[in-house]
Amino acid sequence: PLTRPFDAQRKSALRSSDSLYCYDLPALFEAAVEKQWSDAAVEGGIEGGIRAASRPFMVMYTSELVVERKNGESGPWTMDDYLHGDLTLVQTQRRAGANNVGMVAWLMTLKTVEYPNGRQVVLISNDITHKAGSFGTREDVVFKLASEFARANRFPRLYVAANSGARIGLAESVKKLFKVSFKDASKPENGFDFLYVTKDDYETKFKSDNIILVEPVTLSSGEEVLKITDIIGEETDLGVENLKGSGLIAGETSAAYNDIFTMTIVLGRTVGIGAYLVRLGHRTIQKTSSSPIILTGYQALNKLMGVDVYSTNDQLGGPGIMYANGISHLTAPDHLNAIESAMEWLSFVPSVRGGLLPISDVTGIDDIDRKIGFTPTQGIPYDPRFLMAGMENNDGQWLSGFFDKGSFVETLAGWAKSVVVGRARLGGIPMGVIATENRTAEAIKPADPADITAAEAVKQEAGCVWFPNSAYKTAQAINDFRTEDLPLMIFANWRGFSGGQRDMFDEVLKYGSLIVDAFVAYEQPIFVFIPPFAEIRGGAWVVLDASINASVMEMYATSGSARGGVLEANGAAAVKYREKDLLKSMRRIDEKLIKLYSDLESATATDKTGIESEIRNREKSLLPVYAQIAVQFCELHDTPGRMKAVGVIERDVAWEDSRSFFFWRLR
Distances in Å between the alpha carbon of 555 and those of 283, 536, 550, 559? Predict the structure, then answer.
């Protein structure tokens, strides 16, 4: 029968983790870039056709990044060679499948719509057909050098995860020859004392290579043997040395996140150090099936507990867990969709860290100076995504949003739903965006099958309030945008932080402080904008104020309807405009009361009782309306006019004109 190259490897990858053979990955990236060009041609009308005409014939070029000795010697290298500085990473063209290490890396030049002349990306992938994709020291060296190469050149670094964690091995040569000293040779079921080798075996097999460490012992039979105290092994990568290598690449990934754009695409199971690399690289796209992110497999946990509690690894680290807790930013139904999502994400990011933003031509797609069509209605909850992306009304009419039509891409949507984060374009300029959810959201904590007393917990989270999870989500998103060199737009509508006992115990103060830390480190422009009928109060204003990082932050408010202050008007009135103050105001303003008090002064003793009763009734009837007057009086202290007068905002901006205003402010 006819077979194609690597059919065996493809079947092995599919069987092992429902994943792809790593050497097929570049073809997926090529297909994703070609789809980008096709979509750009369709979306832009006549201008899109012009863009399509500039599509290059070849949209991708790749070279493999291979580790070699600096002196050019052939033969397998080791971690010791790396530690001695004897290894280097070279670009080469070689046939697919020529690797002898379970980690493969490429330098890809992708001719995308944003960069038709090409942008370079470093792609690192496990080879799950090589020792189940496990991390040995040689795999760690390839990963480390490829990541360092990306950092040195400030290229984006993508890691495709499909592995089985740190490698575990046994000394096979010792395994074939060791013997056992039983407590009672006639009854081995009673247990044993130690393992040993004979003197002859030690002299001929182990002594010269220092494979085992021994001490002389005399058996009860009188035979002199050598008790095994330590097994070193002649094979490489048997145990703890692999964990040292794992620490090496964990530290490298943490450094890479701060230096360059990092992303992990989980296309198969990723275990142990593989799971930590996912988190340390932060941005994660997870395939929805057969791609759990776990520390320990479910079989091992079942054995540990002595009962079959878990039935799949997805119960421990599938999208139902990792998308809901913010480890995975996006999910994808299949391999190609995951790569397409990665390419869409890359389209917002400069080709090198610190480079110019990839500004798109929006001609034929949207108009920079158009008015915004969607405006919230006071007192009616709405989807905050409508502010950013627009919506269709009940008549099928399109009401445009703040950003370019079709450009908003939400991430972390499964976690901390009281905050919405994502990326979008404003007149073609990529931006990070954070918005407040003003509707009540649900936070669901699943029941752990290992705890028979556990039950699913559903927590209702009020809109316009920062909870521990949403404060952490906000801080994490700001840090992600910072390392993508994106300007940031915040549609702020927070009444404050949740300060109840449970949320204080759950560290809302700690996570709120992380927002300030993230702002302080930011280097691109940040606009904090209070949208129509929105407000910022108390502690929420404190962590958003432009003085946190005055060199890049500016605050604005929607003309007329935005509000900002220490307390909401109702609260301020309850504290600062109490009943005695209401009575003073009505006695000063109400003409009937003024006349009654005037009559009271000149009234006779018999008339006073009636007048006083009339005054009390009048004041009682006026209290409700004067309570509303007090609220209005307090609210007038929170208007954009006062915010501008005291210098806490730059200016007020009409909502319908804010799109063009912020575009030109950004330019």
Answer: 28, 11, 10, 13
Query: β-strand 398-399 against 330-332: which pairing, if any?
Result: unpaired
Token pair of 280, please? Answer: 């340390």
Residue-wise pLDDT tens digits, 6-23 = 777 767 777 766 788 999
Cα gap 38→142, rounded to integer Å: 35
pLDDT at 4: 62
Q: Which residues 6+ apart lie within 8 Å of 388 measured at CB?
A: 401, 402, 403, 408, 422, 424, 433, 435, 491
Residue 159 to residues 123, 280, 484, 652, Cα–Cα distance (Å): 6, 12, 17, 44
How far, in whole angstroms, is CA 339 from its chain's centroid? 17
Distance separating alpha carbons of residues 20 and 24, to the nearest angstrom: 7
CB neighbourhood size of 202 (10 A): 18
pLDDT top residue among 395 and 555: 555
Mean pLDDT for the chain overall? 93
Inform me whether the pLDDT recorded for 48 exceeds 70: no
**What separation in angstroms does the CA of 455 have from each of 101, 450, 458, 467, 501?**
45, 11, 10, 22, 21
Collapse the DSSP code of 167 into the 3-class scheme (helix H, G, I; strand E, B; otherwise coil) and give the result: coil
pLDDT exceeds 80 at position 1: no
> What is the per-residue pLDDT for 438?
96
Buried b (16+ CB within 10 A) or exposed e, 16-44: bbbbbbbbbbbebbbbbbeebbebbbeeb
**Residue 197: pLDDT above 90?**
yes
**C-alpha to C-alpha distance for 4 and 6, rounded to whole angstroms:** 6
- Tell me, what's the pLDDT at 3? 55
Q: How far apart are CA 171 and CA 86, in angstroms?
A: 27
